[in-house]
Amino acid sequence: MDLTERKRRILRAIIESYIQSAEPVGSKAIAQAIGMEVSSATIRNEMADLESMGLLEKPHTSAGRIPSPKGYRLYVNELMEEHKLSLQETERINQALRLKMQELDRVLDQAGRVVSQLTNYPAFALSSGMDRVTIRRFDLLMVERNAFIIVVMTDSNIVRNRLIRLPSDLTEAQLQMLNTLLNTTFTGLTLEEITPELMRVAQHAAGDAYGLISLVVSFAIEVLESLERRTVHTSGLAHLLELPEYRSLDRAQPLLSYLSEDADPARFPVPKDDPMKILIGPENVADALKDTSVVVASYDIGDGMRGVIGVVGPTRMDYAKITARLSYLAEGLSRLFGQGELPDGRNDHK
Amino acid sequence: MDLTERKRRILRAIIESYIQSAEPVGSKAIAQAIGMEVSSATIRNEMADLESMGLLEKPHTSAGRIPSPKGYRLYVNELMEEHKLSLQETERINQALRLKMQELDRVLDQAGRVVSQLTNYPAFALSSGMDRVTIRRFDLLMVERNAFIIVVMTDSNIVRNRLIRLPSDLTEAQLQMLNTLLNTTFTGLTLEEITPELMRVAQHAAGDAYGLISLVVSFAIEVLESLERRTVHTSGLAHLLELPEYRSLDRAQPLLSYLSEDADPARFPVPKDDPMKILIGPENVADALKDTSVVVASYDIGDGMRGVIGVVGPTRMDYAKITARLSYLAEGLSRLFGQGELPDGRNDHK
DNA sequence: ATTAGCACTCAGAGAGTATGAGTGCTAAAA
DNA sequence: TTTTAGCACTCATACTCTCTGAGTGCTAAT
Prior knowledge:
The structure is a homodimer of 350-residue chains. Chain A is α+β, with helices and mostly antiparallel strands. Chain A has a five-stranded antiparallel β-sheet, with helices on one face. Chain A has a three-stranded antiparallel β-sheet with strand order 4-5-6. In chain A, a hairpin with an 8-residue loop joins strand 1 and strand 2. In chain A, helix 1 packs across helix 4, helix 2 crosses helix 3 and helix 5 runs antiparallel to helix 6. The radius of gyration of chain A is 27 Å and the shape is elongated. Chain A starts with a helix and ends in a 12-residue tail after the last helix. The relative contact order of chain A is 0.14. The interface between A and B is large, with 49 and 48 residues. The first copy, chain A, binds a DNA duplex (30 and 30 nucleotides) through helix 3.
């Protein structure tokens, strides 16, 4: 059986109605939506066909039809019209980019927050853990006789610092020596390359100052570790409860706990080749997401790394609107990072 | 009518049973809990008295009794026994302090996360915005000809940094000059004291390099602003839904939206004089919290500043357990910060 | 002061019924 | 061959009614 133009129109009308109302759609309503060119009986026949093609489903005999995941897929691939962002929408996103990014101190993670506010769905943001990060340079700044600041900068242009206080005093000369030693011995090394042997070598070279060396190096290790670690941030989980499909706690609970707090980054889908990906219901690998859809977009954060933001919702989510907003935001983020100037001080990528 | 010893025992038994089960407590159950010294009829009489004293309530005629807020208050003040933390519990908290604090990069905010995991209730953490922060020193570190790192340190020993890239090149001498100018002109100033006039003066002094000055100063302003701003972080909101009183979404929804995301710090109670405060039901100012209880504790973050962590839950929350855990954690945090060594690099307080 | 006994209350569960939106099928009309 | 009107059928939902049992307050006896 082939998908005539009329069938497509009907399918699209059904999906768009269902996206709006979350209620099964009946033949009569569609007849009207289509424009009364045919009667509801005809629509019924068509709907029966669409069902046998696997594009529609019936919650029970005497309800209307709802789209199947396959139906949504067809819709997303072929039927869906690009949602044009209104001036207000783009303005709102731009504002979020400008304002929020200045306010929030961990841009990467907090991008998720913006997404969730923008879409009114729960959102997540992944920081893509980097491989093989190394320290490019160390700087030690004397503050008082017994305190100094460590500043380390990685090869991916991330800068981190820490204030260290010491029980004993310290001369400018010592610090200078330390600085040289660090920059000659510990730059350009990955986490694995900082071995105990290396530390022993450093111990020989440094003598008394070895205690200081190990303080600085363990800070460097912390920095490298934190950068290699991938992290998830979820936000707007409460939005889930606003949706009719999650009014019942039994439905909401498992999804919430899947998403909440210390979620495992590996559980979240990431777009591979394309900048954006839509996963509908069972297309998701994770069991907890089998009844939900996920839209993910990635954005450029410089140095060839990509950040990921995504939205989670019921399969009937408004794909057109969400994808439009998400991709606009992702583009904005890419631009922001691509320019080489991060608004926040503690996360500097090129 | 006075509160005899027996009445107190009965009240306590009722409250502790209700805390456990969330079900109205009947006279028979209490007779048993007390030890069968008296019959249920006697308990009923006592309960009637307790009710007329405003310590108990009836959801309806033929249910058992539940404690009133006044009852909880009495319990908390006089009846409650100190909950002794078990070895496992203290160990768990210590571990959270050690481990989590190293992992998480924004200790202050993330303290809330630990609380929520520790108590299984939604939790919040406030960073107490500081007054009159000033920059104590600026450091500029040359990275490449067209890039340098700004490091600023505030009078409260917080260090922040940012990498700046420039379209044009820059000499070491220029940077040196800039450094001196910044450290003579812009240190020790509060946000309000950095006026346009001051900027004009700096413009005269700096000449061509003014563009750089304004870059650095606007970064400093950002830092000062971010420190003066009080922020809330809530976590573990999903725990709310595990509680029987919030199984119905209509109850949970308003509280969730009150707590969620961009909540206003001013809405959250803070302990004033004592290190810990319990607010029971209507004792809360905020309408949305009228049916809930809040336990808040503050901890020392150095430089005379205090952080606040708190737990939100139904009025029947297990005050004994929660307060014990919260205060132990708060003490641990105070110790951690008090030592002057913060585990994370980007938030250095004394 | 305590207790046994008893009538009374009332939320919640379960059963039965009505409602109506929506379907599939058939047979006639286009 | 396609479309349509008509009709019997389905079934989730809402509603009503009744029953049950935990729990109460009161009274009279201990």
